[in-house]
């Protein structure tokens, strides 16, 4: 028994000497972990030096588009609504038809007004000839009156000479008083005729001046123009064109290709000019508005390429984009409630600046997006 026990006591130390120390295994584990960490750090450092430092990333990005508002340019009751929400439409497609009764009546009135204006202007041109003839006639009357004045002057001169002669002879009794009286009456009559002729000449001159003034006034209405180019006709034609345009505007068409959204019009509703009836979202012209932190924008430039992912499709679909613009201020700068307040409390917050990234229309055709969808954007700043 004592011998076996001694052998066993001797055997135990040999088994413990063969077992490796626990401290050595722990050291190898830590050494391996350190190697992994160093390799990971080296790998990350290499990735950052080659890739990470040359790009900026954000998931604060959303799909946007220049939404077109459909508003009527003329008022009236709605006769037809040919589209509904979510419907795809093409540019020029009829969306809404307004009742055009008033517009058609306005066109008829404008056409009648144009015809009246053309006839009125044609009358102006016809009056030119008539007034010109009147001026010629009044000029002839003036010449005739001037001749009568000269004739009256000659008669007066003869009557004066005859009267003077009889006055000289009356002193010697060679001329009777009756003859002297007749000579005096003839002189007075000649003088009155001269005055009447002079008045007639003045009247003829006034008539000629009035006719010339009427002709000038009428020529002002027709000078340097034809019936078609006369201002009165041009105004009437413009009103007719406006009436026709208003008639065409009773049919409201899609301004762009896109999808109908927020339709707010029903048949029978009376709409006013400028009222929003619906929106057209041009999804084929969508872009991404990526809100990058201010510390990321040092190397961002217009024209740089970008890579985008949509939460709608996941990582399986990649969009290629291009930076086309940076906003003029941060989102907080244009907020309804400003970042500063009157309480005296202030906490510095990293601001974000919207960056507009254009998308490839062909890619949008294959994988369409909708306004407001979340995106992940990566801009390659190299």
Please describe the structure with a list of short key phrases separated by commas or semicolons.
OB fold (Dihydrolipoamide Acetyltransferase, E2P), single chain, 382 residues, 6-stranded antiparallel beta barrel, 49% helix, Helix Hairpins, 3 domains, Elongation Factor Tu (Ef-tu), domain 3, 4-stranded antiparallel beta sheet, alpha+beta, disordered N terminus
Please sum up the structure shown:
Helix content is 49%, strand content 20%. With 382 residues, the protein is of the alpha+beta class.
Please outline the helices and strands.
Elements: H1 2-18, H2 22-50, E1 55-64, E2 68-70, E3 76-81, E4 88-89, E5 94-98, H3 101-170, H4 177-222, H5 231-248, E6 251-253, E7 258-261, E8 270-271, E9 278-281, E10 287-293, E11 305-310, E12 319-326, E13 352-359, H6 361-366, E14 374-380
Antiparallel strand pairs: 1-10, 1-14, 2-9, 3-5, 3-8, 4-7, 5-6, 7-9, 10-13, 11-12, 11-14, 12-13
Helix pairs in contact: 3-4, 3-5
Describe the overall structure.
The chain has helices at residues 2-18, 22-50, 101-170, 177-222, 231-248, 361-366, and strands spanning 55-64, 68-70, 76-81, 88-89, 94-98, 251-253, 258-261, 270-271, 278-281, 287-293, 305-310, 319-326, 352-359, 374-380. It is of the alpha+beta class. The protein folds into three domains: 51-66 and 282-382, Elongation Factor Tu (Ef-tu), domain 3, CATH 2.40.30.170; 68-98 and 250-280, OB fold (Dihydrolipoamide Acetyltransferase, E2P); 103-245, Helix Hairpins. It is rod-shaped, with a radius of gyration of 53 Å. The two termini are 85 Å apart.
